[in-house]
Amino acid sequence: MSALTITVPQEYGYVLLSATLSSLVSYWHAIQTGQYRRRAKVPYPNAYATAQEMKEDRDKYLFNCAQRSHITFLE
């Protein structure tokens, strides 16, 4: 039986760093979106505030911006 040898390039650390930082940014987006949701009082399961609500309340507009940013990042 022969031993399995895996060779990892020296630059592979950049791959791990990229994956880790992407996860952290995703968590940060989720936290920001949750804070904006609470401030705007947009209940679950609504993904966004309506256009009329956004015109009347700046917090709802900012929530929609945060939500779109988070969803775009996840795509």
Q: Which features does this protein show?
A:
75 residues, mainly alpha
What does this 3D model show about the protein?
- By secondary structure, the chain is mainly alpha-helical.
- It is 69% helix and 0% strand.
- The protein contains 3 helices and no strands.
- The protein has helices at residues 12-40, 51-56, 58-74.
- The N and C termini lie far apart (44 Å).
- The mean pLDDT is 94.
Number of strands: 0
Shape: rod-shaped
Order of helix and strand elements from N to C terminus: HHH
pLDDT < 50 stretches: none
- The helix count comes to 3
Helix percentage range? 55-70%
Distance between the termini: 44 Å
> What's the rounded overall pLDDT mean?
94
Report the major sheet. none
- The chain-level structural class is mainly alpha
Proportion of β residues?
A: under 5%
Radius of gyration: 20 Å
Structural topology:
Blueprint (H helix, E strand, L loop, with lengths): L11 H29 L10 H6 L1 H17 L1
